[in-house]
Every structure is written in structure tokens, then in C-alpha cells.
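Chapter review: from sequence to fold.
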Amino acid sequence: MKFFRRLKPLSWILLSLVAVSIVYFLVARFWPKTNVLERVYYDWTHSNPYVKNRGQLREFLNNLERVSYEQIPDDFRRRTGMNRRAERERIKRQRFYAVTKKDLYKKIAGSNRLMSIVSGDNQYGRHSIFSDEKFYFHINPSILYRFIEVQNELEKAGHDRDGIRIISGHRTPGHNRNVGGKSESRHMMGDALDIKIGDIDGDGMATREDKKLLLPILRRVIGNSGGLGVYAMSVHIDARGFRARW
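The C-alpha cell string follows.
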């Protein structure tokens, strides 16, 4: 007890930080599904800046490991349906990014994290932030550039740039089938995003008014070189290279 009484305030702060760090480590290590806790831990222990321009995004992607289709482990390709003949012919020329669980918490577009881009069947929830297990995905930077441009346009108009959120990016063939995606889905090509419409106008609710604010900006940014699909309170955008609307 005398030892603790002699500690100065700074020492107490340092001890508290060490104790919190140990708790985060133990819980995240032995309770792999704690994504919220792991996200807090990652932000506390790493620089994780908000991504607001192409330069930041380009630097982010350039620092990731790149692999060819042939370099992806057989069990991963088999489990995700990437080895089926029809899909294989379509995607085997793509270059994929190889990331670990820790990478998934990095911000890639605005405050959206890499986890929102990676196909949902990667099974990353079974692994902790300290795992070296590799996950593979493909994304066309062009579609992320457009998302950031939409955010910037929202901000210029006086709206909340974070009123939109990425809910789906790349899909493996297996995941695309599981969610009822079309056989020619642009998500499998890595150049499509599904976006959730939130409280853009700052009135505390996500309503049709928010949707009305967003759609003109999306039409202008996507133009005649991509697809735009409008749903209840979400939208699909892609960079297919020609105009498509639904």
C-alpha cells in the first residue's frame, strides 16, 4: 500500500494506460468477435486518419500487399467459389489485395473502414486483431474515388459528408450468390459499392429528404460512365464504364 501512496499522478496515468492496454489485449485475443472493442483498440494504438482525398487513398492502397489469383490459397478459392469455372475465367486476371484482421480496421474512404469493402464471407470475425490470417479482396480505386467525391460534394453543399456509409464493396462469387446478387454483378469485379443513406441534412433522422439531397450529386458524379441503382434508403454505384440506371 505504501508503494501506491508514493506514486505521483503521472505514474498513476501510465499505470492506468498499461492496465487498459493489457485488458484490451486479453479480451481481443481470446474473444475474437469483439469488433467494436478491437476497433477502439486499433484506433488507440495506431494512426488512423480520416481519408478525404485521392492522394490519401492511393497511398493507403499502395501500402497493401498485392497478389495474383494463382497466389491465393486453394482452400480460400474453393470456400469462396472463386475456383468455379465461370467465375474463374472472369476474375483470374484481377490483382487482389492480401490483408490481415488488423488491416480491416484502417479507414479507407472517409471514416469507412476496409472491413466495409471486403467480401462478407472472408470469415474475419473468427479471428482476433492479432491474427496473421490473410484475407483477399479486389477493389477498383476508381469507385472509391467517386465515393470520396460524393462526400466532398455533400460537404460543399453544407451537408454531413458522413451521412452516407459503405455497406458492401467486393463480393466473392460465393458471397454474391448467397446474397442473391446477379450473376454479372459488378461487385465481383470490385468496381461497385452499396451505400446506406443516413442523416445527411442533420435533422436527426434518415428520411426521403436526405435521399433527395444525395441523388442529384450521385447523378452528377457518376455521369455516363457508371451505374446508379436507387432503393428505399440505399443506393448502388459502380464504375462499369458506361451509363446504367435502375
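Two observations follow directly from the output. The chain has two domains: 2-44, 46-245. The beta strands are 65-68, 95-99, 107-109, 112-113, 135-137, 164-168, 192-197, 227-230, 234-238, 244-245.
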